[in-house]
C-alpha cells in the first residue's frame, strides 16, 4: 500500500485508507480509482493529478 | 452565534467552507457571490476544448447543490458594498449581514490594458466561468482569435484554440512567452512548439489599440504599426488581487490583502485567502497555495478563539502550464540572487536556478524534460516550511 500526494494541490491519498466517503474502498490503488473521479478537495479531474509517492 | 461569512464562491471560498465543515458541522456559514455560485474547477477553463467540454459541462455543482453539501447558505448575485469592521457587518445592496468571523475569498481581477480605438469594449477577458460563456458564444468555427498577453493563461488558451480548429495570433511586449515565469530558453521552447502547431506570434510588441475592422472583425494594432486582423480579441495580460473593498475597510493591503501565515488580516476577525491574499509576503494566485491555505484556515476557524491558530505551509508546489504541445513545469525562484543553468535539446529544456552555494532554488522543465519533475520537486526547497 502506498501513500500519494498531489503536487498541484497538496491532496494526500493513502491507499490503505481509501476514501470511504467518496465510495473508494480501503485498499484501492491510486491507479484503480476511476478516470471520472474528481478530487473531493479542489474538484480537479483525475487526469489533472500529479501524484508523487510520499513515505 | 453569528455566522461565519465567506465572500466569494470560487475555489478559495468553497474550499475553505468545505475544510471548515470537516471540523465544525454546527456553526452557520453564509457564502456571498456576485455570480450564480456554480462550482467548477477553474484550471479546466483554459483547456475546455481539449477536454471536449462546453461552459455548461464545466459546472460541477450548482449553488443549491453546494449549499446542501456544505450545510450553508449561498447568496448568489449579491454585490458586497462595504465591510463595517466595528459593527462586524457586511453590507449588501438590500441587506446587512452580521458575522462572527469574515473570510475574504473574492479573488483577483484581470488587468485591463489602456488601449486606443473604437472597439476596446469588445475585448474579452476570461477569469471566471461567466466570462468564458461569453467568450465561447463569440467563437465560430475557424474564428481567428487575437490573444493579448503570452503569460500562463494566454499560452494555455493559444494551445487549446490552435489544437481545435481556430486561428490564433498572440502579442506580448516581452521577448518570449511566459517571460515572467521562465527563462528565455524555456519560453522559446513553448514558442517553437506552438508556432509549429500554427500560432502566429507577435513577441516584443505591445498592443496599442483595437478598432472595428468591418464585417464584425477587429484590427489589433501593435507598436510597430502592424496589425492583427481577428474575429475575437482576448486579453490575458495578468491579474490584480481584489483589494479595494478591503482597503476601504481600513485593512492593510499591498500586492494583495496582507495576511500572515495564520491567514489573518490586520483585523483579528477577518481572514483572507486565494487570489486576493498576500500570504507572508507572497502573492501566489495558483491552486496549490490556495488549497494549503483553505486547509489551514478551515481548521483555525473551527478551533475557536483559545486555540493556537495553524500556520500555513507551502511545500514545493510547482506551477504546471498545460500547453499540451509543450508542457511546462516551473518552480520560480523566490530570491533572484542566483543564475539559471540551462540544458536544451529541441523543445526539451531543463533549467536549474542555483544560488551562490550551488543550492537549487527554482527550476523549469519543458516537454520531455518534465519527466524529471519528481527529482526536482524533492530537491527544491519549500516556499513556506
From TrEMBL, chain A:
It holds the Pfam family Rubredoxin. Binds 1 Fe(3+) ion per subunit. Keywords: Electron transport, Iron, Metal-binding, Transport. GO terms for biological process: alkane catabolic process. Pathway: Hydrocarbon metabolism; alkane degradation. Fe cation binds at residues 6, 9, 39, 42. GO terms for molecular function: electron transfer activity; iron ion binding. CDD domains: rubredoxin (cd00730). Its cofactor is Fe(3+). It comes from the Bacteria. Residues 1-52 form the Rubredoxin-like domain. Residues 18-37 are annotated as: Disordered. InterPro entries: Rubredoxin (IPR024922), Rubredoxin-like_dom (IPR024934), Rubredoxin_dom (IPR024935), Rubredoxin_ET (IPR050526), Rubredoxin_Fe_BS (IPR018527). Belongs to the rubredoxin family. Involved in the hydrocarbon hydroxylating system, which transfers electrons from NADH to rubredoxin reductase and then through rubredoxin to alkane 1 monooxygenase. This is Rubredoxin. It comes from Salinisphaera hydrothermalis (strain C41B8).
From TrEMBL, chain B:
PANTHER family: NITRITE REDUCTASE [NAD(P)H], PYRIDINE NUCLEOTIDE-DISULFIDE OXIDOREDUCTASE DOMAIN-CONTAINING. It comes from Salinisphaera hydrothermalis (strain C41B8). Belongs to the FAD-dependent oxidoreductase family. Pfam families: Pyr_redox_2, Rbx_binding. Gene3D superfamilies: 3.30.390.120, FAD/NAD(P)-binding domain (3.50.50.60). This is FAD-dependent pyridine nucleotide-disulfide oxidoreductase. Its cofactor is FAD. Residues 311-379 form the Rubredoxin binding domain. Signal peptide: none annotated. Keywords: Cytoplasm, FAD, Flavoprotein, NAD, Oxidoreductase. It is found in: Cytoplasm. One of its GO terms (molecular function) is oxidoreductase activity. Residues 4-282 form the FAD/NAD(P)-binding domain. InterPro entries: FAD-bd_OxRdtase (IPR050260), FAD/NAD-bd_sf (IPR036188), FAD/NAD-binding_dom (IPR023753), Rbx-bd (IPR041364). GO terms for cellular component: cytoplasm.
